[in-house]
Dihydrouridine synthase 2
Amino acid sequence: MIVNSLSLCYHNKLILAPMVRVGTLPMRLLALDYGADIVYCEELIDLKMLQCKRVVNEALSTVDFVAPDDRVVFRTCEREQSKVIFQMGGMGAALLSDPDKIEKILSTLVKGTRRPVTCKIRILPSLEDTLSLVKRIERTGIAAIAVHGRKREERPQHPVSCEAIKAIAETLSIPVIANGGSHDHIQGYLDIEDFRQATAASSVMVARAAMWNPSIFLKEGPRPLEEVMQKYIRYAVQYDNHYTNTKYCLCQMLREQLESPQGRLLHAAQSSQEICEAFGLGVFYEETTRELDARRAKLLARSPEEAEEPAEDTSGIIKMAIKFDRRAYSPQITPKMCLLEWCRREKLAQPVYETVQRPLDRLFCSVVTVAEQKYQSTLWDKSKKLAEQAAAIVCLRSQGLPEGRLGEESPSLHKRKREALDQDPGDPRTQEPAMPGELCKKPFVALASGQESPLEGW
């Protein structure tokens, strides 16, 4: 777990535990509002994060980590800076059976980042083995260890072992965070301190009790569930949370009230708007979405010079403000074909296209490399193919070459097309040549990530 602060303290803290599908940005912000000191994100697989691109989302004022399929894997904002803990690794307690791997992972993280690293475990079948493991973990140099006082196979209905957590806390010199008390021990704010004392832990991590009502962190006592759910929905809409995740978290809060009229409306909801309407927030949804749309429109209205550019060194790129208009070109000949034919005739390597997508409006921009020179249109287009054609036009025009416009066809390409029409349509030679060097990198990364950590910067 990589912590978003160099000085985060783990003593006497109230902590929102990592929970799959629950610990997304709206829930983390809600927990902070109600008094949590530290919030964990849901458990994320490291391989997924390696596939993501870091995107600064100006419309939402967030930093997003976006997968190749455009799904936001992790979203954070300045409000939780220095309070959010990013959790990654094997699912559940999978690593408990491989202490060598645990030690290697933790040692690598501690040595490879300036940010504090923590670890969360369950207890082993024997106390002796558990203490041996945590001592080994402590030697890696981690800043704190969270202990769920149940064995790997045990479920919430099994009693949590306060004794095991206490034995660990008395053995180690680093802070120990107690976890697992929601079922038997924690029903209200005062119970959190009682659980901490029973385990001799430095801090307490709350999971299901906070999932049911995040205001459990309030010293004054929990707020009415209806109020809490409405506040959660507001965060979900403001930060464009996917409605399925919003719906899931609200269902966990409603619990036995799922069969109520409001619960049935929630169950039937198929969009964020319908969820808002079920909770009397229809006007809020309309106002907020209008505000977000206006913000996005303002960002899109910026001049090409102000608009985002690919997150790479663009020096030396030849640029023109060009769009590819299909109506101005022969249906048989495209600028890409003209550029490829010219490269072949000049005995140059095939053109290489690098195409990126901008998350804000999902438009594309392409850079084509020919003979080690890059060419790009400054205008973004609605598809990868159109963006690549525009880049090809920039290259052709800068070289004074024909680009396939009507009345301007290249004789060699015209001849090649006539020959192709005489061939068997199923012959692969009649198809447009493949572009082995083509790349599509999406979505577009607004700001490059830091060298040390994918969370560098926020």
In short: The two ends are 15 Å apart (CA to CA). The mean pLDDT is 85.
